Amino acid sequence: MIVTKGRSGLKAILTADIRSRFEEKEPPKFLDQSAAVSVRNFHLSLSTYKPTPLVNLSALAKELGIANIYVKDESTRFSLNAFKVLGSSYAMGKFICEQLGLDESKVTFDYLQSNEVRQRLGEVTFVTATDGNHGRGVAWAAQHLGQKAVVYLPKGAAFQRVEAIRETGATAIVTDVNYDDTVRLARKDAEKNGWYLIQDTAWDGYEDIPRWIMQGYTTMALEAKEQWENLRLPSPTHVFLQAGVGSFASSILGYYVNCYRNRYPKSIVMEPEKAACIFESALAGKKSPQRVVGDLDTIMAGLSCGEPSPIAWEILRNFADGYVVCPDYVAARGIRILANPLGNDHRVIAGESGAVGIGLLSLLLQNENCSELRAQLGLDENSTVLFFNTEGDTDPVSYRQIVWDGRYPLPK
Question: Which of 285, 352, 277 has the alpha carbon at shortest distance from 312?
Fold first, then answer.
């Protein structure tokens, strides 16, 4: 393990020997190719499904001195401005199939919306805790299934994210506690009221639904791989993955580990400064995940989590090549770079959680204080880097302040 803390404000842990121990670890079978194809087949049955674009930022790559940069832009997913509905829709569909004894491989989303299913299932209420995007996905799926949803959000939740949930007809409740305590409140109220919890983090006795949500996310990884192959692009050398509880990062990493075995892209996991629970887990070097406490303040609201999902941590512990803690200015820089493209590059509208990877890459390649970390990560003129823009401008007020007013500038 290499621990780095430079003048740039970045902290990093690199697991230099992770590849040499690959054969000792079992890739997560529930995220393999056959599982991803099955999940994508379910998503294909949603009438508004279409693959999100894989955006080529060739001018930016040239400017930064590497071979290629590609961004899988999830801001266009189902017109919901974020990827999370992939997980919630699949998990809720799978849940209904199990409740009614249906074969999920033969069930379409249209059928789940039918009067026949609603009569057999009865009226149910789905509940979740969220920083915004996951809750909107649950609320959207519940609305389309003709069911109710109750969504809890932590203190400080952006007004626009709360309103986007309410626009689906769901009940949105903003608490006075942080994300992790909001999860506990949602869990308690679900048990008390007989609601069905659709949460993207796991604990003892609650593991099936988080796994289904993670499987739902593999649709975008499968899409990216197919787009890559159809364009006959060189395989990515690096993939930057942002993490809250770790479900997104581990689902993408787990899929690529299954596809490429020990030749999978070098994986870098990124977290906010005050919510770096994955980083702290790696630093502790223990099998069980570690937690961080406090308000977890960050502009990267979707990553503001203090307790990793144990399922996600197991995958990240076994296969991630590095973990980087990013101050808020890294995400803000990424937003500005994507909003102001070079040359013929397409503009990408990215929220704070979606842009942090581009911000980090730009600093690694342009800030001399990051030269050692850049070399340790093997970033050079031959590198092809893949990013996932997991959200658009889900908080338009913050987005405008960052792009127009230069909020969260680089430290001098």
Answer: 277
- Between strands 238-242 and 384-389, the pairing is parallel
In a domain, 58, yes or no: yes
Do the domain assignments include residue 208? no
Tell me if 251 sits within 8 A of 311, measured CB to CB.
no
Q: What's the CA gap between 191 and 179, in Å, rounded?
A: 19
Tokens of 128: 């979740």
pLDDT mean across residues, the chain: 95
Residue 132 has what pLDDT? Answer: 87
* Residue 322, H or E segment: strand 322-326
Phi-psi region of 346 (alpha: psi -120 to 50; beta: other; left: phi over 0): beta
pTM exceeds cut of 0.70: yes
Give the other-Cβ count within 10 Å of 34's Cβ.
9
CA distances to 200, 277, 308, 314, 400 from 293, rounded to whole Å, are 19, 9, 12, 21, 30
Residue 33, token pair as written in the block = 């190719």
Is 273 within the bounds of a domain?
Answer: yes
Residue 21 pLDDT level (bands cut at 50, 70, 90) = confident
User: What is the rounded average pLDDT of the residues 326-353?
Assistant: 98
Cα–Cα distance measured from residue 386 to residue 332, given in angstroms and rounded to the nearest whole number: 19
Domain boundary pick from 199, 230, 249: 199
Per-residue pLDDT tens over the stretch 118-131? 999 999 999 999 99
- Specify whether 280 is located in the same domain as 360: yes
C-alpha distances in Å from residue 275, one per residue of 299, 303, 374: 11, 7, 23
Residue 289 token pair: 């995940």
- Please give the average per-residue pLDDT across 168-176, as a whole number: 97
Considering the domain architecture, whether residues 38 and 159 belong to the same structural domain is answered as no
What's the gap between Cα 28 and its chain centre? 18
- Domain with 89, as residue range(s), is 85-199
In this structure, is residue 342 part of a structural domain? yes
> Structurally, how many domains does the chain consist of?
2
Residues with a known catalytic role: 84, 131
193 and 323: one domain? Answer: no
Identify the H or E element spanning 174.
Answer: strand 171-174
| pLDDT score of 7 | 62
Same domain, 121 and 42: no
**Tens digits of residue pLDDT in 241-286:** 999 999 999 999 999 999 999 999 999 999 999 999 999 999 998 8
Considering the domain architecture, whether residues 252 and 268 belong to the same structural domain is answered as: yes
